[in-house]
Amino acid sequence: MKRITFFYFPILLLFAVLCIKCTPKSPVVTFANPSGVVGDTIEVKVETDLILEKIDHSILFGTVPATVVSTIQNTLKVIVPKEAITSKIGLTIGSETFTSAEDFVILHIYVAGNVNRIPTYWKDGQASAVSDGPAAGVGLDMAVRNGKIYLCGYKALTNSTSIAKYWVNGQPTDLTDGTTEARASGIWIDSNDVYIAGIEIAKKGNDEVTQAKYWKNGTPVLLAVKEGEAYAQSIYVTNGDVYVSGYATIGNSIYPLYWKNGQETVFKDIVGGVAFPTSIAAAGADVYLMADERRPMETNQPFDYFNLVYWKNKQKITVPLTSSDAEAKSIQSQSHLLVSGQDVYFTANQYDKDLKILSASYWKNDQETKIGNAKGDIVSAIALSDNDVYVAGYDDSSVMYWKNGVATTILKDAKYPNANQIVLAP
Q: Given pLDDT bands bounded at 50, 70 and 90, which one contains residue 334?
């Protein structure tokens, strides 16, 4: 009788291989932009053998459901939900959820300014006033790092002097003692170090001299100039280098300058002998300095008009204005500079003296975008989130910001409001 031999092992092995091949790969969830603001539309990519367009699926930010605008070839356009916090993004199919390896970071919109002479900041539209006594204070700049909110400015005293100071989450720190006038006008946080630029009036015999300086963690560093009196305004720190913008008054002229680690660079290639720097930035080996350049137009009104200029290293660039009649325009000294990669962004306000209309704009390189209502809105600061442009501003009773030209009002019917900085940060 013949014996029949069954080859069980090879058959089982073949069956196992076939099963592995027919099992779908677990979806891998990724996103191109690591951060965003509530309401942003972002792209979520899913690597999977499944065709998501043909099956039910949903997206979660942590545990918060999000609206999926579209799903095309396993790329989803998703709106960041209002309740989202920094968390992983999950794709839910049936009863299973597949999460991203990295967290998606939620950015908050911070605006700094003043209301009725009280330093104030807004986080996602919620106001927090900063006050440490009855005397008036002024907030001039803001930074946000690791959840802490830093404001700098000054507090006016009853003896006609002022104290340069800064606040961290509303808690004040004095930089000067109030015996002479002092102001803090720019702040930068680098790692755990707090850098603040400003001025202090010093006694020199019977005279008073304005000194430019910056403070690192409360310790002052004098910024010297070869001639004239110096004023420091804004500060920028990168790769261990400290850049401070300011100006020097020499005779009847005002020349913009900056210091890099205490070494001054002065720009005297200005029209009319007066230019006020407004902000500074550095990108790689390049240094950018923004200024409002006064130019005389009429004999009896020698400094009514401004050019908007900036220097990239030592190359001066005059920004073209929208009016063909250049004499009809002037620039209000509220310009603000931001550098992202090879692109230069800045804000400014143009006033047509003939039409008596103030118009607010921002530029990307030499391309101007008008925003606001052209009836008094003033823009003062700019920030970026991916391809979205945020601009802070105010009018005579309100504070607002614009996202890609669309306004959100965060304060109405106020006395003496302004906004001077906008920051996007976790």
A: low
Are 87 and 72 in contact by the 8 Å Cβ rule? The answer is no
Residue ranges of the chain assigned to CATH 2.60.40.10: 25-105
How does DSSP classify residue 301? B
Q: Quick one: average pLDDT of 393-416?
A: 95
Assign domain 25-105 to its CATH superfamily.
Immunoglobulins (2.60.40.10)
Query: Hey, what are 178's tokens?
Result: 């109030």
In sign, the C-alpha dihedral spanning 261, 266, 270, 276 is positive
pLDDT on residue 220: 97
pLDDT computed for residue 352 by the predictor: 67
The alpha carbon of 267 is separated from its chain's Cα centroid by a whole number of angstroms, namely 26
What are the start-end ranges of the E strands in 239-318? Answer: 241-250, 253-260, 263-266, 274-283, 286-295, 305-312, 315-318
Instruction: Please tell me the predicted confidence (pLDDT) of residue 274.
Output: 87
Q: Give me the CATH topology for the region 107-425.
A: Neuraminidase (2.120.10)
Phi, psi of 314 (to 5 degrees): -110, 10
Domain with CATH 2.120.10.70 in the chain: 107-425
Question: Across the chain, which distance is largest between two alpha carbons, in Å?
Answer: 128
Q: Which residues contact 325 (CB under 8 A, 6 or more apart)?
A: none
Let me know: does 353 contact 371? Beta carbons within 8 Å: no
Residue 8 is classified by DSSP as H
